[in-house]
Each structure stands twice: as structure tokens, then as C-alpha cells.
Amino acid sequence: MPHNISVAGRAVGADCPPFVIAEMSGNHNQSLERALKIVEAAAAAGAHALKLQTYTAETMTLDINEGEFVINDPNSLWNGRSLYDLYQEAHTPWDWHKPIFDRCRELGMIGFSTPFDSTSVDFLEDLNVPLYKIASFENIDIPLIRKVAVTGKPIIMSTGMATVAELSEAVEAMRDAGNDNIVLLKCTSSYPSTPESTNIRTIPHLRDMFDVQVGLSDHSMGIGVAAAAVALGATVVEKHFTLSRAEGGVDSAFSLEPAEMKALVIETERAWQALGEISYGVTEKEAGSRKVRRSLYVAEDMKAGEPFTEKNLRAIRPGSGLHPKYYERLMGKRVKTDLKRGTPVTWEMIG
User: Fold this and answer.
1) Are residues 132 and 234 in the same domain?
2) How many domains does the chain contain in total?
3) Which helix (H) or strand (E) holds 295?
4) Beta strand pairing status for 10-12 and 5-7?
5) What phi, psi does 334 have (nearest 5°)?
6) Which residues contact 338 (CB under 8 A, 6 or more apart)?
7) What CATH number is attached to the domain comprising 343?
8) I want to staple 193 with a disulfide (CB 3.0 to 4.6 A). Which of 2, 154, 219, 242 is the partner?
9) pLDDT digits (tens, 9 = 90+) for 204-228
10) pTM of this prediction?
11) What is the pLDDT of residues 142-192, one digit of tens each?
């Protein structure tokens, strides 16, 4: 199994409850007050970390409103919008980062971000973030990955769209920079995604192939996919988060609301607790139930010398008598002494 990693003093690994990340993204709707309320709601829901995205429209694309700079996909939430316009609306102003991270710390939550270019890494380093995220769309940006890796801080990277070869290049770049504190998140880069497109059987394969911690960046609705991912070995779960989908926002349609995030934290931890180990037979917790199993009992009063028959020998609860597998062997055997109805059968009573 891959080694645990430490994130701001919190262990992340197979022997720890899942590390749950609430992704704010652009759901602040360009209001710092709303952003801080999202932080507070995420903390109240039990999320362990809150993640921002650090970029400006200028660092992401060009201010062009035609051709391939405009989203042309009827299935997209953002169909018809220019990339520049979308990123202008969705970006988190850089002067908001410190108050947001400060609020996270006050509430016992880890605040960090996804940088999208070299300048955003420098900015986040000045804020001393404890870890970094590489987004799916940037998992082929090896120069960016190297710059993040040399900070020595843990790196969580989404794997959306990446081939095995591309993931190998990215992981090699991190390790070549001396950074082996890596988490790879299975991710489907569609918004929203469907359970059918999520393919979480990839999670244990990803872990074994790269010997790293693994998790899920989930854009599907609900919490079922995340709980199933934990059962398959995910140690990190990331979900977009908002105060209310009805209030809108660039990512609100596939974001969890506070009650759903709370359920996610609870149910993913339950899924982790249920993993346990390979186990057969009576567990410590089942010891008290053992006596309620079926066993062989005298079902009618019997006189000494009488044989067992279908009427006076039955397999019933509780479990103080002989194992039911001896039923046929005992049939016709005679008893040594008088026996009362309700007596557990033992070998000593057989003549």
C-alpha cells in the first residue's frame, strides 16, 4: 500500500477516514461575503478542507469572442459563452484568498487552491498554502507541475482526460522534483458527469500502478458515487459546494448543498469504517449473538429409553444444544433419562 501523506498535520491514507474537500470554485458569485458564508457552511458540514481556484481571465485565455474561444456544445452548462467571459465571472479575486484562508483556519479547516499558471503558484506560496491541486485540464502542463512539485508540499492531481502515458509523465515530473507526496483523483471532466461515466473501478488500478494515494473528484449529483469510491480505496473525495443550487452560479448545477455535504462526510466515513479486514467466523461484536443461532432441542417431554423422532427433536433457536448438522445422526437414538421439553440436546443424554 502507498505511504500516508500529511496535510497540515492531518494524515491522509488508507488507515484514516476519507479526506473530504469542498470545492468553492466560482460559486461565490463574485461576493466575498458569500464566499465566507460558503467557508462557514463547509466547516459546519464537516468538510476537512476548502479549495479555491487561483487564476485570472488573462492568465487562462485570450479576450476573443469568436471561433474556438467560444464554447459551442449544446450539452454544456456554458454553451455560447466565451472562455474569457466565463473565467472573468468564475475567478476568485486574489485579494479574497487571504481572508478566505484565514476563515478556514479559524474554523479548523484546511484552505488551499488550484494554481493555473506560474504567477498563481508564486502568489499562493506567499500565502503559505499547505498543499496544491492540479486540475484535470492542467495535468499535461509539465512546467506548472514541476513548479508546484519543487515547493515540497503535497500535490493532489485530477486525472480527467489523461492517458496512462500522460499521467506517467506528470507523476515522474513530481518525483524528479523530489516530491512523492502525491494523490491522484479519478475524475470525469464533464459538468455534470453521470455515475455511468465515472468508472471508479479505475481507482484501485490507479493506486497500484503509481503507488500513490488515490481518490475521487466527483462532478455527479448525490453522494453514492463517492461512498462507492471509498469502498474501492479512495482516501480523498472532492465535491463542488454551494450554499444553494437555486441561487445559481457557474458551477452550482453540480454542487452539493450543506445538508448533502454533511451526508457525504458521514457516509464516506461509514464506508471507510465498513472496510475492515478479511474476516470469517464469529467476530467480537457477534459473540453475544452466537447463542441465538439454531441448535437441537427436545421439543416434547421424553421418557428414558424413548427414541428421537421428528416430533420430539427440532432445530430451533437458541444455540445451547448440538449443531443442527447432527439432526439425522440423532434420529432414532434413545435417551438415557427423562427429558423436559426445552432441554438442549447433548451427547451425554444419548443411550
Assistant:
1) yes
2) 2
3) strand 295-298
4) antiparallel
5) -100, 150
6) 301, 302, 303, 304
7) 3.90.1210.10
8) 219
9) 999 999 999 999 999 899 999 999 9
10) 0.87
11) 999 999 999 999 999 999 999 999 999 999 999 999 999 999 999 988 778
